[in-house]
Amino acid sequence: VVGVEKAFDWTYVEKRLNESFSRSRHAVLTVSLHYPGQNLFLPQFIWDKQPTLLYYPDFMGGGVSPDYGDPIILKAIEQFIRAFGAKYDGDTRIGFIHLGLLGFWGEWHTFPQNFVPEHAKHSVTQWYTESFSKTQLQARYPFDPTYKAGMGLYDGSFAFHTLDGDANGGFYHPEWYFWPLVQAAGQSDIWKKAALGGETRPELQKEIFTSSYQKGTYEKQDFVRCIYTTHATYIFHQDAFILGGYTGEQLAAAAHSHTRMGYSFI
User: Fold this and answer.
1) For residues 120 and 178, what is the distance between their CA atoms, to the nearest angstrom?
2) Is the pLDDT of residue 3 over 80?
3) What is the DSSP letter of 60?
């Protein structure tokens, strides 16, 4: 988004889409307005309208968040989603699009505060549904309107906050762990209707495919068990591709785990 209302510059998106497509990969896109610890990603025309900002304390370093119920913010989000869909719905370079836009990292929460009202979630779901009829959409958490619209889900803390109970060292957190929330929402069959994905929790990526990884203990869950339970079809795992990537046992374990998923480029 550039500084003028309803004006969009897709240059950065095009660059990244072309890069991934050149490697025979689909891109997964997430758009956010707020990354804790950084300045808000708001174009100048929104600042000019003086949107409401909400302050949060030292948790996550402290800072300000957009008020996602502010009509100024919501109108800009609607304009973006409709332009986004007009430009990219059905683009074969894209595998999935996360709904994003609301909350920290576009993940629909501002824990421990609550700056994302229910009507904002409903509106964003409606605008995405109306704007994308071909490209698959995914929500961060189970939400009845996204489920009814045929959208999938993604787990941003995969193998860390995915399962609870014996898979998590005997600890239960049904109120905020991913799969318990899916079960509580009555969406355990969602994988039969739409794709699920996610990202291995960054703190786990350096060890999760090593023999010293204590899988099945608290917040150190078995990657393959999480795959089989959720039926995830892709997982972001950037440590496998940076600083030379994996070798030896890590590479072998990661390659084995990769085969447990069902995604391939077509």
Assistant:
1) 21
2) no
3) G
